[in-house]
Amino acid sequence: MPIMVVIVLHVIWTGIAGFKDDLIDLRRQARIWLCALPIFLISVNVVAEYTVNEERQVVVYLFAEFLGVSVLLFLLANFNEEVLKFSSDVKLDNQPSKNNALNIHDKDKAAYRRLMTLIEEEQIYLNDNLSMSALAENVGIPEHQLRVIINQGLGHKNFSTFLAGYRIAHVKLALSDPQQARVPIMTIALNNGFSSLATFNRLFKLETGMAAGEFRKRVLRNL
Question: Does this UniProt record's set of keywords contain DNA-binding (predicted)?
Fold first, then answer.
């Protein structure tokens, strides 16, 4: 497979991966541009190859490349580094601060309260199939409004890390409970919304700096 094809596929995958999980509207727009640009350029080149003579093909190719570079420069000029950073969050800050409500628009405060009731009291995050659309439906608002509340109000950039923060906190409580000392860690992880043990292990170590088994031993040893 030509190296250019690999690069193009990687660029498209970078744009697609995490699109639904992304809470930043500007970054979602950048993802769309990142996917659309190579597809457009490839389409232009393919059409030109079969419909334009060789002399004019050069002009078409140069125009397509010029357009592509112009769009990339536009993205770099209008989107900051944070927006163009497509990797997932590494911070699982699940506890909203007391000042979070100050970042919520008046029109969103009722929805914000319903969201926090679902999260903190009903613990809806324990559902491993919980999606952005399902949570928005439970709150009773459109998805885009929920993204704004979680991003601008609670400071999260990705939906999955928003949920993972609460799930990890709940797992830590279970691992600290002597009555659950014999419950397998995998069972605890699955009961707390994680559908993949590998994902749980990675996020738990990212949050605590140690494996779940080591965390349990240290906590129970100090009781």
Answer: yes
What's the pTM value of the predicted model, to 2 decimals?
A: 0.69
Tokens of 102: 């100050």
> pLDDT for 113-139, tens place per residue?
999 999 999 999 999 999 999 999 999
Helix spans in the chain (H):
3-16, 25-51, 54-78, 109-116, 132-139, 143-148, 159-175, 185-191, 197-208, 212-221
What is the average pLDDT value for the chain, to the nearest integer? 82
Question: Residues 168, 136, 138, 196: is their CA dihedral positive or negative?
Answer: negative
| Dihedral angle computed from the Cα positions of residues 113, 115, 117 and 118, in that order, rounded to the nearest 10 degrees | 170
Count of residues making up the chain: 223
Predicted pLDDT of residue 82: 57
Q: Which residue has the higher pLDDT, 57 or 111?
A: 111
Token code pair at residue 2: 């030509």
Residue indicated by tokens 């419950």: 183
Q: How far apart are CA 71 and CA 76, in angstroms?
A: 9
Q: How many CB atoms lie within 10 A of CB 37?
A: 19
- Residue 83 and residue 80: Cα distance in Å, rounded? 5
DSSP state of 62: H
d(CA 37, CA 75): 11
